[in-house]
Amino acid sequence: MLTFSKTYGPELVETRRLREDIAPVLESSSLSGNRINDLILVLVEAFTNIVRHAKPLPTEICVSVETEDGNLIISVSDNGPYFTGFETARETARSLGDLAMMECGMGLNLIFSLTSSVAYLSSESHNELVVREPLPASERKTIVAIDDDPVGLKLIEAFLGDLYEVHPFNKGSEALDHINSEHPDLIISDIDMPDLNGLELRESLRFDPATALIPFIFLTGVIDEKIHDEANDLDIDDFVEKPTSKGKLVRTVDRVLKRSSRIRQSAAAAFEASVTNSLRSSTPAELGRFHFFAEEIAASAGGGDFMVHVSGDDFLTVVLLDVMGHGIPAKVFAHAYSGYVQSIMSLDETARDPARVLQGLSSHVARDTRLTSTIVTAVAATFSDSGKVVVASAGHPRPLVYLQGTGWRPVPISGVLPGLSNELPETKTLQLGSGDALLLFTDGISEALCRERPEDALLSALGGLPPPDSATLTKLNEIADKAGHGREQDQDDRSTFLAVAR
After folding, report:
1. Would you list the DSSP string of 320-368?
2. In what helix (H) or strand (E) does residue 88 lie, and over which residues does it extend?
3. Bond into 184 cis (ω within 30)
4. 2-134 and 280-501 share one fold
5. 353-405, pLDDT tens digit by residue?
């Protein structure tokens, strides 16, 4: 069944409209938020590849989404020239032979890494990239119901089966094994049962962190007040006496699930705030004749930007990282990366060399299997009192340098993503004099501008602006506002930038 189909012009500015169009379509599916973000990234990457590399350009690019046999089928088609190197690129991605393709997180390798099934097809009229994404078996919340009375168990199934996925058990021990492995959304249990009674079942669950917070309702005919008191002491969510009606049970289940959701959201918000605070960037106001101006524009969905610095008597090294993704997952991974970078920079001889800092980060990422599901970019710069600046990059947007008489221009530096190579990254050395400046930034600002190239968009927006000072920060905030990244607006990605003037 076709759920979405739209045609776009072959321009990078259309990627923003594509994001806006496709997000609600994917959000209406049963996919997780993280998986939706991955697929949006795949779509934008495929679209961008067509616009940047197809010669001649196609006249139109069509994106469609449909469901078929439990799968989400996502298609990006164009009427441009056929790309003959798709399968070769797939083999290269498997072997990681050509690491240059992974610079800045771009290219087919990124698409291959984020999809389990992708094909490239061609006909006389068009080419088509097709991604097949399995949908979860059920979107309904799951309930485990336990009662040794078969009639009572059938009633629970009849009352709730049209709204929820009910898993019935007539033995507490069997239900416990299922709960420990599947973690349902809610548990409804009788109390008076052989084998393992309801009180014992609840006691087992509440002391296991993996199951303690699963909402729990007793549905029982036991009327002994002492038993009721024991049940309430086990941190249950409700107590319903038998017999009960369908309406009452449905209302109770709905209320308990909504309350549990609110509690989890509040806990998540508190946790996100604590992680965000721990990632707030800080740099000294000055080093010798260098002046530092740092700014963050937080995203409503959160984001994984952070900045770490270390200074000595005559130098300062800054590392700016961007973990791909949004919300709590990106922030948690950013927190892990922050610890790595800080430990690497604790060695004085390493802290003075931005290339060695990024090499150490890459080695950590390659060894830590927990980080294999993330993509991170980084840029490091060491500033010396003499005005010398050494810059190294790991797949990050290129810094911009301001030189008197020439204005703003990109620093010609590149490098592969952390975790893909143990080689020492290349460095570029700049000599900044009075009135010169350097701008490091994450792609939250530049990508939102949606021009032919993000860095060109920033260069155009900065125009003839003089070296960074308070006026530069005001201008960068204005750029972010115009790009839809203003502080009072909803936004997809966090933006961080560091302007350094001499």
Report:
1. EEEESS-HHHHHHHHHHHHHHHHHHTTSHHHHT-HHHHHHHHHHHHHH-
2. helix 86-95
3. no
4. no
5. 999 999 988 887 777 766 655 677 889 999 988 889 999 998 888 898 888 87
* Topology, domain 280-501: Phosphatase 2c; domain 1 (3.60.40)
Could you tell me the residue ranges of all domains in the chain?
2-134, 142-271, 280-501
For residue range 145-164, what is the model confidence (pLDDT) as tens digits? 999 999 999 999 999 987 88
The Cα–Cα gap between 233 and 90 comes to 58
Cα separation, 18 vs 47, in Å, equals 9
Q: Cα–Cα distance between 320 and 305 in angstroms, integer?
A: 7
Task: Give pLDDT tens digits for 333-357.
Answer: 666 676 677 778 777 678 889 999 9
Q: How far is it, in rounded angstroms, from Cα 173 to Cα 197?
A: 9
Q: What local confidence, expressed as pLDDT, does residue 202 receive? A: 93
pTM of the entire predicted model = 0.48
Q: Does domain 2-134 have CATH number 3.20.20.70?
A: no
Measured distance between the N- and C-terminal CA atoms of the chain, rounded to whole angstroms? 60
Q: Is the confidence at residue 450, as pLDDT, over 50?
A: no
Which CATH code of 3.40.50.2300, 3.20.20.140, 3.40.50.1240, 3.30.720.120 fits the domain covering 142-271? 3.40.50.2300
